[in-house]
């Protein structure tokens, strides 16, 4: 049976289960020449994208980070107000004049083309194992049995701990070999730039929530984050599938750089909105963990990625997360502000990450499902 064909439906387990003993392979270079797509990639009618209708664009305020960082009080106040309004409504905004060298961003996109352009067998040297969150995955065919995303991904752990100062580059050297030293270097530098940018944004969020610049910055100083390279091959049936299914990011803050193809959609006011690509900007969104840390004041919002039938699409997502053992518990003023009620239980990022990797496929209800799982004794 050619590698990209699926086991006959009769042999597929009926319920959502791992394909540990029956893996199959998503190889877009084969699949995209087929007239139809495998049924596992077909999403339910109510989740299929409507590509024929132009979507409204989401108004995401571009925050001029340079203004904020220069400390000009008017600029700081303006930025804090814009961010506060956006985060209370849908959790998405954009940052411009962010100080990240455009050449580094361009190099990161180039190494994505390099990596995902390699033969499948080469990429599978970094094959992500079930239950782990790092490595190469071609559509998670060994994790999910239906609603498969039309994408390849590479996820690498980044740690700001000085004792783990080269984790990203070391990963590439160890898993892919010496020839990937440059690719690893670019990813390492990109993550270091993202970590620095994240802490500036955390200062801004602290100002926006009125608890000062340092609280969240200190909380994420020793972040233990994830760099995610998303590669969406063209699909002959783009209206039947999704590149990334509807979800809220379980992490704390996502800093996303998308190429100029377009495909990121956000669900606000009961309808899907597009976010137009802008190479000078990073799209930033609040994740579930920060929603809990803000006691529900800032929203982690449903979003997805659609594909097309003519051009590959790429996005670079930096998922900021706290140190694994850090307890996520909102500061007192943010409990007072929400009629003294706690919205979510205390938890560590380590436990939440394990929940998404071993017990629950992240979707729009991940944080509530996780909260219930904790309350029911992790069952
Ligand atoms: C903690 C994480 C799990 C995912 C990567 C990071 C943050 C976003 C999550 C994800 C992208 C949400 C949609 C489903 C998912 C399986 C995916 O499509 O990649 C999620 C990631 C994951 O579990 O690998
Ligand atoms: O590719 C995109 O634009 C969004 C991807 C995404 O939401 C994610 O990886 O969490
Ligand atoms: Fe996401």
UniProtKB/TrEMBL annotation:
**Cofactors that this protein relies on:** L-ascorbate
Alphabetically, which GO biological process terms does the record hold?
A: flower development; gibberellin biosynthetic process; response to light stimulus; unidimensional cell growth
Q: Which family does it belong to?
A: Belongs to the iron/ascorbate-dependent oxidoreductase family. GA20OX subfamily.
What's an example of a GO molecular-function annotation for this chain? Answer: gibberellin 20-oxidase activity
Q: Name one Pfam family in it.
A: DIOX_N
Query: Could you tell me what reaction this enzyme catalyses?
Result: gibberellin A12 + 2 2-oxoglutarate + 3 O2 + H(+) = gibberellin A9 + 2 succinate + 3 CO2 + 2 H2O
Provide the protein name: Fe2OG dioxygenase domain-containing protein
This protein's source sits in the domain of life called Eukaryota
- Pathway entry: Hormone biosynthesis; Plant hormone biosynthesis; gibberellin biosynthesis
Cited InterPro entries: DIOX_N, IPNS-like_FE2OG_OXY, IPNS-like_sf, Iron_ascorbate_oxido_reductase, Oxoglu/Fe-dep_dioxygenase_dom
The organism's taxonomy opens as: Eukaryota, Viridiplantae, Streptophyta, Embryophyta, Tracheophyta
Keywords, A to Z, come to: Iron, Metal-binding, Oxidoreductase
* Domain (Fe2OG dioxygenase) ranges: 222-322
């Amino acid at each position: 049976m050619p590698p990209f064909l699926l086991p006959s439906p009769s042999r597929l387990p009926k319920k959502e289960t791992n394909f540990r003993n029956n893996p199959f392979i998503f190889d877009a270079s084969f699949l995209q020449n087929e007239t139809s797509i495998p049924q596992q990639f077909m999403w339910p009618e109510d989740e299929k994208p409507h590509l024929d209708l132009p979507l409204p664009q989401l108004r995401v305020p571009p925050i001029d980070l340079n203004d904020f960082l220069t400390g000009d009080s008017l600029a700081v106040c303006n930025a804090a107000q814009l961010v506060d309004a956006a985060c209370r409504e849908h959790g998405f905004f954009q940052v411009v004049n962010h100080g990240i060298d455009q050449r580094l961003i361009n190099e990161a996109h180039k190494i994505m083309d390099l990596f995902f352009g390699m033969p499948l067998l080469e990429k599978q040297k970094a094959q992500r194992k079930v239950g782990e969150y790092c490595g190469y995955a071609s559509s998670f065919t060994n994790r999910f049995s239906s609603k498969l995303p039309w994408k390849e991904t590479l996820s690498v752990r980044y740690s700001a701990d000085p004792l783990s100062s080269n984790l990203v580059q070391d990963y590439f050297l160890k898993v892919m070999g010496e020839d990937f030293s440059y690719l690893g270097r670019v990813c390492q530098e990109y993550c270091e730039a993202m970590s620095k940018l994240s802490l500036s944004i955390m200062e801004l969020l602290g100002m926006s929530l009125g608890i000062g610049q340092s609280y969240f910055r200190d909380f994420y100083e020793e972040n233990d984050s994830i760099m995610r390279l998303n590669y969406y091959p063209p699909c002959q049936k783009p209206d039947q599938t999704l590149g990334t299914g509807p979800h809220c990011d379980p992490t704390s803050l996502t800093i996303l750089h998308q190429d100029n193809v377009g495909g990121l959609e956000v669900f606000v006011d009961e309808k899907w909105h597009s976010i137009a690509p802008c190479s000078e900007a990073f799209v930033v969104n609040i994740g579930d963990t920060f929603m809990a840390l803000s006691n529900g004041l800032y929203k982690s919002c449903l979003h997805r990625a659609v594909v097309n039938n003519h051009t590959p699409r790429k996005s670079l997502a930096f998922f900021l997360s706290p140190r694994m053992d850090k307890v996520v518990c909102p500061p007192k003023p943010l409990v007072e502000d929400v009629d003294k009620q706690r919205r979510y239980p205390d938890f560590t990022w380590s436990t939440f990450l394990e929940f998404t990797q071993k017990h629950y496929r992240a979707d729009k209800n991940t944080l509530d499902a996780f909260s219930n799982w904790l309350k029911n004794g992790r069952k």
